[in-house]
Request: fold
Amino acid sequence: MSKNKKLTKEEELLLQDFGRNVSTKSSLLFYCNAFFVSAVPLWLFWRVHEMDPQDSVILFSVMTLICTWFISYAYKNIKFQLKHKIALKIEHAVTREVNHQLDSKPETKKLTRQEKDERILWKKNNVADMEATTYSIFYNNTLFLFLMLIMSFYVARSFNPGVNYVMSTAAASGFVALLSTSSSATS
Amino acid sequence: MWKFTSLLVAFISLYGCCTADTSESAHLLVSKRVLNEYVVEGRDLTVSYAIYNVGSSPATSVSLVEETFNSDDFEIVSGQLSVRWQSIAPGANVSHNIILKPLRSGVFNITAAMVTYQPSEDAEQQVVYSTAFGETYVMDSKTFNRKHAPHVLDWGIFGLMTIPTIFLPYAIWYSTHSKYDGSKAKKL
Reply:
């Protein structure tokens, strides 16, 4: 039993690659993107809803940080859900491509089956990670901006701009985060 | 409000016509209208005056004086608040426009303008007041912009902001996705 519990280095790497936890680099990318998209509504509330940025600096800062947290949380969830599905879908194409590349060079042609499989796994993980990350950013950003526009220009348009801002951004980011927790969010 | 003003003008006109038939003198009716749909702080406000002579003789020494718009609240962009006409022939009308700029928002009581004239050569000077539109709300520019301005440039810049947030991630995803798409891979 204790033998089964002990994970090999390869298994640990595999778990790290396909686990829910994201790397520092990925996490930084998510936070930067989330911060940027959270700051986009400020432009509309300043220019279109005529809010004074100096008077609302605290409100703007707090809500931007809250939105950043919610959206980055959604990024991670969607990425985690997508990565498995994408890895399965691209397996065939990646295997063909890696095999083709390895066979075309004499120095890599004679690699063992295990080494080839490792390279395929590494490539598959990279491609799946890239696709899942970019799609997660695209999907969550689009959903957040769409919900924010609907909230601020239709649902809450009659409210005071400050209340409208809080309602729109909180509801949009909260809904994005909530949707990301659903197992069928992107299926 | 406008219906009421129109009715009032019609009533005064009728009254003026009736009295004009019985006396040889001029009778002036004065209307005062705001041509803007919205009265907004810092935006031009056009006020139009029309003076109708419904009497049977010319009105002479006609003078229109507008005292509603004080200089603290309204800036004169074009036109004069006091204007004179030598005479207005019977059945004729004259008009006068002024363009003002409200300097602050709030509710203003815009009352009637005063017109003085001589109904006939030997008659005493008469005073007549224009129609008035009473309490008028001058909208602040922020509220007006929020509700009515098109913000084309602002929306254009917002559109540009969606490029790095939406289109760039999509383009990167699409380039990878199309390369390893299952259906395409089979064709290789």
Notes: The radius of gyration of chain A is 22 Å.
